[in-house]
Amino acid sequence: MSDFNAPRLFVDDDLPGSITFDARQTNYLRNVMRLKPGDSIIVFNGRDGEYRATIDELGKKAGEAVASEKLRAQTRRPSLWYAFAPLKQARLDYMVEKAAEMGAGRLVPVLTQHGQVRRINRERLTANIVEACEQCGILSVPDIVEPVPLADFLGSLDGRSLVVADEALAGEEGDAIATIRAAGAPLAVLVGPEGGFSAEERALFTPRASRVSLGPRVLRADTAAVALLALVEAAFPSK
After folding, report:
1. Is residue 1 part of a domain?
2. Do strands 148-149 and 106-111 pair parallel, antiparallel, or not at all (unpaired)?
3. How far is CA 128 from CA 38, 118, 174, 235, in A?
4. Is the peptide bond before 186 cis (omega within 30 degrees of 0)?
5. Which of 31, 52, 72 is the last residue of a domain?
6. How many domains are contained in the chain?
């Protein structure tokens, strides 16, 4: 089990072994957590598992530690794909954090006719994903790809089951969890833009997707993300 009482950081270095902290990590350890040489932290790199490390040095802009005690073996990246129409920045930050926390292994921005955002800052979003993994004990960091048109996304599924949260079904009765479970894994889920899917887009994905309602109300896209991923977890509980 991970030690959730200790600060936890994602690092690029191979583990076990020596670790070098960048300026952001050093500031966090030294000025936010008030740690000093000799103190312990938890580190992971998404490849080699999770280790306890002892801080050797914390300067003003850099630091070093040595990781030696293995706490957990590396896990596989979750098979779940979370696809979404990009949002404006603050709400997009929230969405990708929650998707990482709730078990997505790949995040796929999908360009739709009614979407208002066409580009993303992958570096910023990756940093948000890493921070979510640091805080939630996640070992395998999800990846996020560049935005793709809806048709290209559908063409990339290659046999993967698709579940779409379709606002056109709002208020309709049905067992969303049973629908998701019946779709089967590996699974991709899709949440559309604030303006909803167009008739052409719905005609494009309907023949190959299982459509679900998220309840009686039309939810904001970032809220829909949490609701849909909670249903996926209920359908396929994490081991």
Report:
1. no
2. parallel
3. 29, 19, 34, 27
4. yes
5. 72
6. 2
- DSSP class of residue 82 equals E
Residues 24 and 132 in one domain: no
pLDDT tens digit sequence for 44-98: 999 999 999 999 999 989 999 999 999 999 999 999 999 999 999 899 999 999 9
Which residues does residue 58 pair with via DSSP β-bridges, in sequence order?
A: 63
Q: Is 228 among the domain residues?
A: yes
**pTM for this entry:** 0.92
Residue type, 116: Q
CA–CA gap between residue 99 and residue 130 (Å, rounded): 12
Domain identity same for 178 and 226: yes
Q: For 115-157, how does the pLDDT look when each residue is reduced to its tens digit (9 = 90+)? A: 989 999 999 999 999 999 999 999 999 999 999 999 999 999 9
